[in-house]
Amino acid sequence: METLKDFDFMLEYHPGKANVVADALSRKSASACSAVMASQQE
User: 3-state DSSP: the chain helix, strand, coil percent, rounded to 5?
Assistant: First the structure.
């Protein structure tokens, strides 16, 4: 929370299905997952 106080932002609540972007932003892309898996195998 200390870090956030330095920023000027506004939180807006979007209930349930109205917040469709949150799920897309929280998922990693397949290429990012592949890169992580490849580096772990080396």
Answer: 60, 0, 40
